[in-house]
Design goal:
The chain is of the alpha+beta class. Helix content is 24%, strand content 36%. It folds into two domains: 30 residues; 101 residues, Immunoglobulin-like (Sandwich). A five-stranded antiparallel sheet has the order 6-4-3-7-8, with no helix packed on it. Strands 1, 2, 5 and 9 form a four-stranded mixed sheet that branches. A hairpin with a 2-residue loop joins strand 1 and strand 2. The longest helix has 27 residues. The radius of gyration is 20 Å and the shape is globular.
């Protein structure tokens, strides 16, 4: 068997396998349609000492679990996503927020890295929410 024919069969097998599994992937990764309809779009801005916080991730926790996150842009703005990256927004409710920074990222006081010590609580209401978060 030629190398070309062997590679063609490998790619065909991979494609057919992926195609066969794709309905299951969509079913399990995107949540229920009812859950997506209940999500509230959430945008906003995070500042510390009057300056925008950037190159960090705002994380919202509920019941000790991550529920939503938003990447902070250079102007401190964000748009929240569910933890699956597929749906924009967050479920209405009360959350504890904290910031996650990458190695060699910007620094803030350590208390903002944990939802228990950050002191930042956020209430997401049904419908669109625009949050202005000033860290102290």
């Amino acid at each position: 068997m030629s190398y070309h024919l062997h590679r063609t069969r490998q790619w065909t097998a991979w494609f057919l396998g992926a195609l066969a599994l794709s309905p299951f992937a969509f079913t399990f990764s995107f949540g229920s349609p009812e859950e997506r309809q209940q999500l509230s779009p959430v945008t906003g801005r995070v500042c510390f000492a009057g300056r925008p916080v950037q190159d960090m991730t705002l994380c919202l926790d509920q019941g000790g679990r991550h529920a939503a996150f938003g990447l902070l842009r250079p102007d401190g703005s964000f748009a929240l996503n569910t933890m699956g990256w597929t749906d924009r927004g967050a479920m209405p409710g009360r959350y504890h927020a904290h910031l996650y920074t990458f190695e060699n990222g910007p620094t803030l006081p350590g208390k903002f890295r944990s939802p228990e010590t950050s002191g930042v609580e956020i209430e997401i209401a049904p419908g669109w929410n625009d949050l202005q978060i000033e860290l102290h």
